[in-house]
Amino acid sequence: MDLVQLRSRLSQLYVPAVADILDDMGYTEQVLKGNLRPLYSDVKICGPAVTVSTYWYSSYRRGERNIESLAAIFDACYNGCVVVVATGGNREAACWGELMSNAARSRGAVGAVVDGAIRDVPKILEINPPFQVYSAGFTPADSKGRVEFSESEVEIVCGGVRIRPGDIVYGDFDGIVVIPKQVVWEVLEEAEKKVEKETEFRKSIRQGMNFREAVQRYKVV
Fold first, then answer.
1. For the segment 38-90, what is each residue's pLDDT rounded down to a tens digit?
2. Euclidean distance between CA atoms 150 and 169, whole angstroms
3. What are the structural domains, with CATH classification, of the chain?
4. Using CB atoms within 10 A of its CB, is residue 125 exposed (0-12), middle (13-18) or buried (19+)?
5. Whose C-alpha in 12, 36, 130, 189 is 20 to 30 A from the C-alpha of 58?
């Protein structure tokens, strides 16, 4: 997959248009739920998913962290990837932070998506160029003793969406959509056509065209 071309073309689009095309193609459960919000309003992310599953303890456990399962996340990272951590929506502890962001960035990752909580936000915001992270909120509580990172590069469910390693994660200020890797180029082509029509629709409306006439002409609503 040509990630440079993919990222360049998606940078000209927006998540709602891609989500609409996926709906039209029958992929109706591709938008992550849980009100996941980005650290930056103006930084998009786009890249193949490096997936991570988690296991939560029923109560706090003292002892050493499983470093190998944690290190496996960064071993799996590569240039242009997006790390996706499935927490089941649990926000009792942070499953991502500044040290993990730096470790992922050093391996080429462009961002992370966590359907739970993160921490160390001011330090993440110091990373340059920006390392975009989506999450369901913040907490200072450490993952150590509360949750383990069980497996990397396996099929997961994050934000209610089934995600396989290599599926394309695309996010902007509106949210995140996951494009199944087997249809990414088809989705991209159709989304480009939709955005072109929406641009013409917007221009016509601003120039005074009647709403009904614009809908009939461009068929984008």
1. 999 999 999 999 999 999 999 999 988 889 999 999 999 999 999 999 999 99
2. 21
3. 3-180 (3.50.30.40)
4. middle
5. 36
